[in-house]
Design goal:
The chain has 2 helices and 26 strands. The protein is mainly beta. A 7-stranded antiparallel beta sheet has the order 1-22-19-24-17-14-13, with no helix packed on it. A 7-stranded antiparallel beta sheet has the order 2-3-4-11-6-9-12. The longest helix is centred in the C-terminal third of the chain and has 12 residues, at 269-280.
Length: 288
């Protein structure tokens, strides 16, 4: 199987979002700006690695109420606990090893905040949030929320490591997240000398993103919090020179125009203006 090589490496951008949450913005990365940045990994729009950080006692760090329209969010928690509420009445507890898939669709307002125990005592938090674009035909879909508990995506053994599949079929395992844009998404941990190999459909975008440690793709090293975009080939082969934890993502490009403003991703500037108007008028709902 001819494997893909790395065609570009983009370091993440350390920043803050929400209410004092430290994170690394992996997509768009440090050198990517403007609407072109949102096409580089089509159908993926944004990827944040939040933490690892320790919330101090009494903290209110988190993501207070904010709107979205035109895409899906897939939030995966590695450590800590978050609670979710949204304007459709959706709610849930995000536990370590679990995830939440939120369809913003026609518009939603939601919040992601630490659980009461963290508010009182503090604690470690780490996770990854991925924005997945919706095709134009689905941007007006009904908003909604799906809890993906750890039990629905347990760790599976790999030679020299393990894998947790969130979406698509990888290493013979199918993840529970279902998205209109076909994707494959997983968290992989390898021991020193471990190897991960996976076939990728022709024409799909693919990348590997180390969260901790360094990996190698065809001899090229990729450091933590760096997005390695992969080129042509039938699959990917990743090697671990030392223990490494990374995200693997691949997806079929949507190939539609992208108009972006803050929490809204649509196809035209006019649709962005309408999204702003609808949010301001309360037509995306509210959180009490």
């Amino acid at each position: 199987m001819p494997t893909k090589r790395v065609i570009s490496q983009v370091p993440g951008l350390p920043t803050q979002d929400g209410n004092r949450v430290h994170l690394t913005r992996l997509v768009p990365g440090r050198s990517q700006r403007g609407s072109d940045a949102f096409r580089a990994l089509d159908p993926f729009l944004l990827m944040d690695h939040f933490g690892p950080m320790t919330l101090p006692p009494g903290t209110d760090a988190g993501f207070p109420p904010h709107p979205h329209r035109g895409f899906q969010t897939l939030t995966y928690l590695i450590q800590g606990a978050f609670r979710h509420r949204d304007s459709t009445g959706g709610s849930g507890l995000l536990r370590p090893g679990g995830a939440q898939l939120m369809n913003a669709g026609a518009g939603i307002v939601h919040e992601e905040m630490p659980v009461p125990e963290h508010l009182e005592t503090g604690g470690a938090i780490e996770g990854v949030q991925l924005w997945i674009n919706l095709p134009a035909a689905h941007k007006g879909s009904a908003p909604g929320y799906t809890d993906l508990q750890p039990e629905s995506m347990p760790w599976r053994a790999l030679p020299g490591g393990r894998i947790r599949v969130l979406a698509g079929e990888i290493a013979g395992v199918t993840g529970p997240a279902v998205t209109p844009a076909p994707i494959a998404y997983a968290h992989v941990e390898l021991e020193k000398g471990g190897r991960f190999e996976q076939a990728i459909p022709a024409g799909w975008t693919a990348a590997v993103v180390p969260l901790e440690g360094t990996l190698r793709v065809q001899g090229e090293e990729v450091a933590a919090d760096t997005v390695a975009l992969l080129g042509e080939g039938d699959g990917v082969a990743v090697e671990a020179a030392a223990p490494v934890s990374f995200m693997f993502l691949a997806g079929r490009p949507i190939g539609e125009p992208i108009a972006h403003y803050g929490p809204f991703v649509m196809n035209t500037p006019g649709e962005i203006e309408q999204a702003i108007s609808d949010y301001q008028a309360g037509r995306m709902g509210r959180l009490d």
